[in-house]
Design brief:
This protein is α/β, with parallel strands linked by helices. It has two domains: 174 residues, Rossmann fold (3-Layer(aba) Sandwich), CATH 3.40.50; 33 residues. The protein is built from seven helices and nine strands; from the N terminus they run βαβαββαβαβββαβαα. A six-stranded parallel beta sheet has the order 3-2-1-4-5-6, sandwiched between helices. A three-stranded mixed beta sheet has the order 7-8-9. Helix 1 links the parallel strand 1 and strand 2. The termini are far apart. The C terminus is likely disordered.
Length: 225
């Protein structure tokens, strides 16, 4: 099956910032026949997205238009994702799949389990790449060569695979994990510079005063003339 053949035919995107805009551009670049509808609160971005051919339809907010979407991806900040999970899932048809691109997964998966429509499985996902800018920085090739974490808990395997196929088709490598494993790994990576600095500082202290001064962990040693 070709890359484009693995894509859902009707996709919904909530939020046309950097990631949502890049997702829309990537889908259209890979297969222009995929119908992409989006929700975006900023009127100027809605106008640009239509003019750019990035979406086929755009709305000011999620609503009944979600009913015919096979897959919907929430591309907003995590706090907004949590608030949207329940309302968006209840606008979707049973059997459709809801996903996201947020950087935190355990709490999002729990909110989806607690507040989402049980007939609409939620599959948490996190593209481990980004960039700068909003819609203006969106690129069709942003997924290519990147890694996407796709959470395996909270959804049936077939729903997980549908989300994984989307990211693979866009050119990313998919790493399956639980939400807890994802958050633990992200926490470790985000704290790694601090841990390395602490380890180097400790090593310098153990090596002696001159090394410690060189590493910046104490005042310069006094040298007699």
């Amino acid at each position: 099956m070709s890359e484009a053949g693995r894509l859902p035919r009707r996709v919904g995107i909530v939020g046309l910032g950097l990631m949502g805009g890049s997702l829309a551009r990537g889908l259209k670049a890979l297969d222009p026949t995929v119908h992409v509808a989006a929700a975006e609160s900023r009127a100027e971005v809605r106008g640009r997205a239509i003019a750019d051919g990035v979406v086929d339809a755009v709305h000011g907010s999620p609503g009944p238009w979600l009913v015919d979407r096979e897959l919907v991806v929430l591309c907003t900040p995590v706090a907004a994702i949590e608030a949207l999970l329940g309302p968006v899932s209840r606008q979707m048809s049973p059997g459709a799949v809801l996903s996201d691109v947020g950087g935190a997964k355990e709490r999002v998966v729990e909110v989806a389990r607690r507040e989402g429509d049980p007939r609409v499985p939620f599959v948490g996902a996190h593209p481990m790449f980004g960039g700068r800018g909003g819609y203006e920085g969106a690129r069709a090739d942003r997924w290519r060569g990147g890694t996407v974490a796709v959470c395996t808990d909270g959804a049936p395997p077939e729903a997980v695979e549908r989300v994984a196929e989307l990211h693979r088709a866009l050119g990313a490598r998919v790493e399956a994990c639980t939400a807890a494993e994802h958050d633990a790994a992200v926490a470790l990576v985000s704290h790694l510079p601090y841990l390395l600095a602490s380890a180097l500082s400790l090593a310098a202290k153990e090596a002696g005063a001159a090394s410690c001064w060189f590493m910046g962990c104490s005042s310069r040693p006094h040298v007699k003339a």
